[in-house]
Amino acid sequence: MSGGKRLKQVGLQRFRITVEFDGSAFSGWQSQQNAPSVQQALEQALAPLHNEPIRVHGSGRTDAGVHATGQVAHFDAPAHRDAATYLRILNVRTPHSIAVLACQPVAESFHARYDAYYRQYLYRINTRKIPPALERSRVWHYPYLLDAERLAEASALLLGTHDFSSFRAAGCQSKSPVKFMRLIQWQQRGDEWQVSIGANAFLQHMVRNLVGTLVLVGKGDWPVARVAELLAARDRVQAGPTAPAWGLYLTHICYPGDQGEPCPPITPKI
């Protein structure tokens, strides 16, 4: 069956949600047997509403300690409750470190993971000499001067379609290391550097490995040309260290039909 007929026959409706969370207390997005996760918290909040478990499907995994302001997920739940009711239930029954920002009914064919065509992250770096007290679990404290021109030049080498094997975790399960990098944009705000990174998809630890490499260029330890050499090498050992998880935020996921920033035009699948 198609077009929502299967879900309607069993009295269910598919809902799309946008989730914000502080990842400090979680083992990541994906449910794990012996550690708290964001997915598990959402599913536990929905569990009393149906006579069987309600599975929440996210746009992708985030590592332990990583935050989100725009994670997207979907679930199938009893259709006699509207989206506003589910929005209220999820925000009442989840920990304060999770906020469900939006909930809307969608077609049965919608899938939070497989339909996403663009993902964007933000990474925050604090460069002051004294470590931050209030945001210790929300920024990477890296007390060194960074050069804006070197950061921009190195980042430009990463734009477009490349094999990102040099920035891929050893345990990554992605079928292909080839991704289309659309955006790497740096901004300095006082002692803090912020970099927005957007692509059609990411490898495991790819954003954190890119940041760990780019700061070495921005600091002056490595030449700008090293970035092109790393792409050609396809060897994780030669690239920079993995930046800490707590400076990373998943900010945007885009789907066909979404309007406005930052969703770019759909590019051919890699």
Automatic annotation (TrEMBL):
Give the residues annotated as coiled coil. Answer: none
**What CDD domains does the database record attribute to this sequence?**
PseudoU_synth_EcTruA
Q: Which InterPro entries match?
A: PsdUridine_synth_cat_dom_sf, PsdUridine_synth_TruA, PsdUridine_synth_TruA_a/b_dom, PsdUridine_synth_TruA_C, TruA/RsuA/RluB/E/F_N
The protein's annotated catalytic reaction(s) are: uridine(38/39/40) in tRNA = pseudouridine(38/39/40) in tRNA
Q: What is its EC number?
A: 5.4.99.12
GO terms in the biological process aspect are:
tRNA pseudouridine synthesis
Q: Name one GO molecular function term.
A: lyase activity
Identify which residues the record assigns to the active site.
D63 (nucleophile)
- Identify the residues that bind substrate: Y121
Pseudouridine synthase I TruA alpha/beta domain: residues covered: 19-115, 154-256
- Which keywords are on file for this protein? Isomerase, Lyase, tRNA processing
Please tell me whether the keyword Chloroplast is annotated for this protein.
Answer: no
Family affiliation: Belongs to the tRNA pseudouridine synthase TruA family.
Q: What does this protein do?
A: Formation of pseudouridine at positions 38, 39 and 40 in the anticodon stem and loop of transfer RNAs.
Please give the HAMAP family that the UniProt record associates with this protein. TruA (MF_00171)
- Partners and quaternary state? Homodimer.
Protein name listed in UniProt: tRNA pseudouridine synthase A
Q: Which organism is it from?
A: Magnetococcus marinus (strain ATCC BAA-1437 / JCM 17883 / MC-1)
